[in-house]
Amino acid sequence: MEFLDGYELLDHMLVDKDIEDQYSTTIGSQLGTFMGQVHALSHSSKLTDDEEKKNYYIQHFENREMRDIQLEFVFTKCYKEATDEQRAGLDVTEEFMKEVNLLKKQYNGEEISPSTPSSWVLTHGDLHPGSVMVNPKNGDTKVIDPEFTVYGPAGLDVGSLLSGYVLAAVHQAYSDNPMAVTTIVKGAQSVWDAYSQTMKDVGGFDDTLMKDIEIETVGFTVAEVCRTALGFAGGRLWLQFENVETKTSACQTAMQIVSTCMIGRHTGGIQLLFDEIQKAVKV
User: Fold this and answer.
1) pLDDT surpasses 80 at 249
2) Tally of structural domains, the chain
């Protein structure tokens, strides 16, 4: 714990009314670079000539017990057990659930189709802002709690992290703190900018592959936003308001972002996500 002395959880900082603007891009850039370096060096396309190493990643980081927990709680339970009241603002159509099931297959490490090569990397597996520690004095950042590590889709880590930024932006908007919303959106954009640039610089990945990861990222982002807004994410700080009407409105706003981006991500990509945050919270 001495290693983390003076550090605070990022999820606590993102809902703080006095969140520091000066570190928003610093933190985001560090996290994006970290993910980009790990993903670029472990990407399945880099192991086509080393089947032994690829099989090692797949088997050693299969992590079936923890993966099954995520499959149940992130992609299944919340949709089966949520009440109509909890789902207010979310249109759970057949097309929507088809997208959820696609994400579920990707997370489970399944080949989507023979014509679509797998795009797997070594992932943290649960990289939400509650797994990130930040030094508020200088923005130095550390990642903790890797027990959900799997060899899986690249968009999982980026999406899990960005989900916290989306939820924090909505939370700050309904806390009448528009300046914090602007800070958080800037931080989210810096995560993606640093990640995509690192993937290109370190891994040499082209725009086609990065577009696939981008679409995947938005899907995993809104899947986690959805689960949290439905009330199936445990003790998260997001959207917790004493005023019932405020809490209901905040959850509905989060659901509107989910509804638009889950399907629209295939054409709008990550810019659609950022645009919808801005639109939904009226920054």
Assistant:
1) yes
2) 1
